[in-house]
């Protein structure tokens, strides 16, 4: 079963629907940053440790006042209109914290699937595949195609990214790469490919847990430098100074850092896996499974600032068309209205 697919927002911005009180966990910072820009009151669990189930509001993003922190012990008294689930264990958390109200039965709920399936792909069955009361909202069409969603209703709401503005200078003749935990994630994030790319052009690696990557990969600073866990505004400023953005990830839904780089006005080079080929038009960069072709393009682009700037302007235009927050919020307004009516 498939829900009515969200449409591109009409001129004039997001649809005007009733304001809802939505319980949602701060799991993925960039995605949640876009979600909380909407009209709904977002209730974000927070605990003293600010651990994975109680991060509350972001500390490195600027969120509006409708993103409200709520202690789990107070949620039982909150009039929650909908629950946005993102991890399987949140089903139990929500029921316990909401005083026994069950997501999908006593309170409307949706489940956002951020990730590509793991295991025996493409036979991986989704954790909610046996339920018909909670729609699965995939963030890419690739995810919807590859997950076995069973009898759960499905929809696709593509990413929306808050526009950081055109900032590209490309003055640093290196490639910017953004990967979180590259050593732990290894082949998933294409970490093993970085030495080959570093021979084509010097790399600057940004993200969480990147500090040990140059030593682990045996690369000197002139070939690979690491910038660990920069705040978002500094990350954007630093990325935009690099000549090109490189996306070596093999298996992810669609890295939001790739879209952010396009919005900054950077030319992009990527492995043409999962949804990346759909996101990158031919005039904005190169998406291919030919690693040698990416090596050549990286080598040439770092040495051609005019072409890099031209591709970057096209990348920004494409990202603004497809990944605007207006379209994203309009799609979510429509879906939440459907599941809560």
What would you say this structure looks like, in words?
The chain has 341 residues and is an alpha/beta fold. The chain has 2 domains: 156 residues; 151 residues, Glycogen Phosphorylase B (Rossmann fold, 3-Layer(aba) Sandwich). Helices cover 31% and strands 17% of the residues. It is built from 12 helices and 13 strands. α2 links the parallel β4 and β5. α5 runs parallel beside α10 and α8 crosses α11. About 3% of the residues have low confidence.
Features:
341 residues; alpha/beta; Rossmann fold; 2 domains; 7-stranded parallel β-sheet; 6-stranded parallel β-sheet; 12 helices; 13 strands; 17% strand
Structural class: alpha/beta
Q: pLDDT average, as an integer?
A: 94
**Unreliable stretches covering 5 or more consecutive residues:** 6-16
Q: Strand sequence of the main sheet, in spatial order?
A: 3-2-1-4-5-6-7
Amino-to-carboxy terminus distance: 18 Å
- Measured as a percent range, the helix fraction is 25-40%
Give the strand content.
15-25%
The H/E string reads EHEEEHEEHEEHHEHEHEHEHEHHH
The biggest beta sheet reads:
7 strands, parallel
Number of helices: 12
Shape: elongated
User: How big is the Rg?
Assistant: 20 Å
Question: Which helices and strands, and how do they pair?
Answer:
Elements: E1 21-24, H1 29-35, E2 41-45, E3 67-70, E4 82-85, H2 90-97, E5 109-113, E6 136-138, H3 141-146, E7 154-156, E8 172-178, H4 182-185, H5 194-200, E9 203-207, H6 213-217, E10 224-228, H7 232-241, E11 242-247, H8 256-264, E12 268-271, H9 276-279, E13 285-288, H10 291-302, H11 305-322, H12 325-340
Parallel strand pairs: 1-2, 1-4, 2-3, 4-5, 5-6, 6-7, 8-9, 8-11, 9-10, 11-12, 12-13
Helix pairs in contact: 5-10, 8-11
């Amino acid at each position: 079963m498939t829900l009515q697919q969200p449409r591109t927002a009409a001129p004039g911005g997001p649809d005007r629907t009733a304001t809802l009180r939505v319980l949602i966990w701060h799991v993925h910072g960039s995605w949640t940053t876009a979600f909380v820009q909407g009209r709904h009151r977002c209730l974000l669990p927070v605990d003293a440790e600010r651990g994975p189930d109680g991060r509350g509001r972001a500390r490195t993003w600027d969120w509006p006042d409708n993103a409200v922190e709520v202690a789990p012990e107070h949620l039982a008294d909150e009039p929650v209109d909908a629950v946005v689930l993102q991890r399987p264990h949140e089903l139990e958390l929500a029921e316990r914290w909401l005083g026994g109200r069950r997501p999908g039965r006593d309170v409307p709920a949706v489940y956002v699937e951020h990730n590509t399936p793991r295991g025996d792909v493409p036979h991986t069955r989704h954790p909610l595949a046996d339920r018909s009361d909670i729609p699965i909202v995939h963030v890419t069409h690739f995810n919807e195609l590859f997950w076995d969603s069973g009898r759960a209703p499905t929809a696709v709401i593509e990413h929306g990214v808050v526009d950081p503005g055109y900032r590209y200078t490309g003055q640093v003749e290196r490639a910017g790469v953004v990967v979180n935990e590259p050593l732990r994630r290894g082949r998933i994030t294409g970490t093993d490919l970085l030495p080959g790319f570093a021979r084509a052009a010097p790399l600057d690696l940004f993200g969480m847990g990147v500090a040990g990557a140059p030593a682990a990969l045996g690369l000197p600073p002139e070939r690979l430098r690491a910038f660990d866990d920069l705040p978002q505004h500094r990350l954007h400023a630093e990325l935009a100074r690099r000549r090109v953005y490189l996306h070596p990830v093999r298996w992810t839904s669609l890295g939001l850092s790739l879209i952010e780089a396009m919005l900054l006005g950077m030319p992009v080079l990527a492995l043409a896996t999962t949804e990346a080929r759909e996101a990158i038009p031919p005039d904005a960069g190169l998406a291919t499974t030919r690693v040698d072709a990416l090596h050549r393009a990286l080598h040439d682009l770092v040495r051609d600032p005019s072409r890099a700037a031209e591709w970057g302007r096209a990348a920004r235009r494409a990202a603004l068309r497809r990944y605007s927050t207006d379209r994203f919020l309009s799609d979510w307004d429509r879906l939440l209205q459907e599941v809560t009516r």
